[in-house]
Design brief:
The structure is a single chain. The protein is an alpha+beta fold and 311 residues long. It is built from 8 helices and 9 strands. Strands 1, 2, 5, 6, 7, 8 and 9 form a 7-stranded antiparallel beta sheet that branches. Strands 3-4 form a two-stranded antiparallel ribbon. Strand 3 and strand 4 (81-86) form a beta hairpin. The longest helix has 13 residues, at 96-108.
């Protein structure tokens, strides 16, 4: 792909595409073909350290430029019974497991009043408690010291909250308080984006990405666009069970009668009507290690709604 074609492809590119990407890309119309879910990750040495320089790529034109897709999953065990399934909230649909968490929080009125042992249970059963959950996108490997053969190749890449925060910090930079405000950068933009210096360090037995950073904006090196991996099959409808199927499975795992169907909006409305409205400051999760895709807050879904309605 030449620089001219890169600029032509991005001539109508707008930064707001990135800012609108969250919550949109995973809910698009998905094709029925499969995609191989082999994600790339820098090789780490015996100390758990690794590094590479990569470039985040926009999605295929045929997929209406989704930058990435988000996929949520529940994975937990109760009395030697496992519940492992994709969360339908990925597609913007109701989920019986999420609704159960809403109900539980609503019974206490606010998060800080929820007993710690119950908070731990909600976290354990929250979204993204699974190895196939996370944000997926295409990346171009610019430099891979451990495996130079990867350089110039496109791979599927999974990332979570730590890297997502860095991406949006570039898109919505904060000034230093002295009048210097950096220009916003859409890191997925092929012409005016930026390479990512991916530094992995082992910290308390987990992968730490805090040393990573984006480099100065520059055109994306040439790459074979045909090697990009379609993203929408990762959130294909056939991967998700129906509400009824999940409700039945959840009831069996919990060893109780199937709950009455109730949407998240109805649960939230009921909680607001019956409880005093107070701000809820849900705790940030601990980073959980090597797979950044697991880093997302298990309670992010509930945190966002609680912040809006002030349960």
């Amino acid at each position: 792909m030449s620089l001219e074609s890169i600029r032509d492809r991005n001539k109508d590119g707008k930064l707001d595409r990135l800012l609108k990407a969250a919550g949109r890309t995973s809910r698009g119309k998905s094709p029925s073909n499969n995609v191989q879910e082999e994600t790339w990750y820098p090789e780490r040495d015996k100390s758990g350290n690794g590094s590479a320089i990569i470039r985040f790529l926009p999605g295929l034109e045929s997929e209406d430029y989704p930058y990435y897709v988000e996929r949520f999953q529940h994975g937990f065990e109760v009395n030697n019974k496992w519940f492992i399934d994709f969360c339908p909230s990925t597609k913007g649909n109701d989920c019986p497991v999420c609704e159960d968490a809403f109900d539980t929080i609503g019974e206490y009125g606010r998060w800080n009043d929820v007993p710690k042992n119950v908070q731990d249970i909600i976290r354990k059963r929250g979204r993204n408690a699974g190895f196939r959950a996370g944000n997926y996108c295409n990346i171009l490997v610019i430099q891979d010291p451990a495996n130079p053969d990867n350089e110039g190749k496109v791979h599927l890449f999974k990332f979570g909250k730590a890297i997502s925060d860095m991406i949006f910090d570039m898109a919505q930079p904060v000034g230093d308080g002295l009048g210097d405000v950096p220009d916003p950068v859409d890191v997925f933009d092929l012409a005016e984006g930026a390479n990512f210096k991916f530094i992995i360090r082992s910290k308390d037995g987990r992968a730490d990405y805090s040393k990573s950073s984006f480099l100065d904006p520059s055109p994306c090196p040439e790459f074979n666009e045909d090697s990009q991996i379609p993203l929408m099959p990762l959130v294909d409808d056939k991967l998700f069970k129906s509400y009824e199927e999940l409700a039945d499975k959840f009831a069996k795992v919990m060893n109780k009668a199937k709950r009455v169907s109730k949407t998240a909006d109805e649960v939230v409305t009921q909680s607001v009507e019956n409880k005093d409205r107070e701000d809820v400051d849900l705790p940030e999760p601990d980073d959980v290690g090597e797979d950044d895709g697991k880093e997302d807050d298990n309670l992010a879904y509930f945190q966002g709604i609680a912040a809006d309605i002030k349960i």
